[in-house]
Design goal:
Number of strands: 5
CATH topology of the largest domain: Collagenase (Catalytic Domain)
Structural class: mainly alpha
Strand order of the largest sheet: 3-5-4
Order of helices and strands: HHHHHHEEHHEEEHHH
Helix content: 40-55%
Bound molecules: zinc ion
CATH class of the largest domain: Alpha Beta
Strand content: under 5%
Length: about 300
């Protein structure tokens, strides 16, 4: 992992600071590195009036603290290390961070959910009228929820019921409400699980989007494309509403082989199943690779 922006990526002192070995701090002896740090904080608008003089004094420390405050990071007395440099590195690449980026993704996530809701309502109508349901909807349900139209033997799969469809519809409608309130239910910050975690949410929220949730190359990992970010929004949204969604037998990634054999009754609580089904319907088939934080997240 390294600083990516051409603005400062050739500076070895900053590269080691970005790994906290050691961070840059008050009265750091490397004037070139300090000058770049100061210029970065000016250029990104963090501290537009900061004097760029290569001296890491109290004003530079205050500017670093303002990065930490702005992005809800652990305040560490104005020391510029992995978190601060990583965030500046994203901003230097004209990247968006956390809540701001996630809010731009809510329309795409909402369109996928709308497609899923339409398909599920169509299925309800077909089941009621005894007509043939859409193949796409049947495929999506069996792929992501292990629910089948025909009776199936007890075990992994199960025949879908009206109550199943209503439960899935309820969850999707809750997600739409959550996205509509993203201004207060989303936040930028460093996830409890660590700075490499793109996003996380406890029951009842909020969803915290970390520096790794970004649309540019960054030293926190690859950039994440809009479809994968939409999948993350839906996934985290389910965590907000379903207290069972984090259980280890429930929380199985759409990229894990075990996803395909998760019993239906557990799939109905799996956040990845909701993201996967909506993408499947919107995409007119299961995307390959799937969206989410896995193979293909880069750029997709
Ligand atoms: Zn999760």
């Amino acid at each position: 992992m390294a600083l990516i922006s051409a603005f400062w990526n050739s500076n070895q002192r900053l590269q080691t600071a970005a790994e906290n070995h050691p961070p840059i701090r008050l009265f750091d002896a490397d004037k070139t590195a300090v000058t770049l740090l100061q210029q970065a904080m000016v250029d990104t608008g963090i501290a537009p009036a900061l004097q760029v003089d290569g001296i890491f004094g109290a004003k530079t420390a205050a500017a670093v603290r303002s990065v930490e405050t702005q992005f809800n990071m652990d305040p560490d007395e104005g020391v510029a290390g992995r978190q601060t440099l990583g965030i500046l590195d994203i901003l230097l690449q004209n990247g968006q961070l956390g809540r701001d980026l996630a809010q731009t993704d809510t329309p795409l996530a909402g369109q996928k959910i709308a497609a899923a809701v339409l398909a599920l309502n169509g299925l309800k109508t077909a089941l009621k009228n005894g007509t043939t349901p859409a193949t796409l909807t049947a495929d999506g349900l069996s792929t992501h929820f292990r629910l089948t139209l025909a009776p199936s033997a007890p075990g992994i799969t199960r025949q879908v019921t009206d109550a199943d469809i209503d439960a899935i519809l309820l969850r999707y409608n809750q997600l739409l409400g959550l996205f509509a309130a993203s201004g207060i239910r989303f936040r930028t910050g460093v996830p409890v699980n660590g700075i490499d975690t793109a996003a996380e949410a406890p029951l009842n929220g909020p969803i915290t989007f970390g520096p790794a949730f970004t649309n540019v190359d960054s030293h926190f990992g690859d950039r994440i494309g809009p479809h994968s970010r939409a999948a993350i929004l839906m996934h985290e949204g389910v965590h907000v509403f379903d207290g069972l969604s984090g259980n280890s037998n429930t929380h199985i990634s759409e990229f894990a082989p075990a996803y395909a054999t998760q019993p239906a009754d557990l799939s109905l609580h799996n956040p990845s199943s909701f993201a996967g089904f909506a993408a499947h319907i919107y995409n007119n088939g299961d995307p390959a690779p799937r969206f989410g934080l896995g193979p293909g997240a880069r750029g997709l």
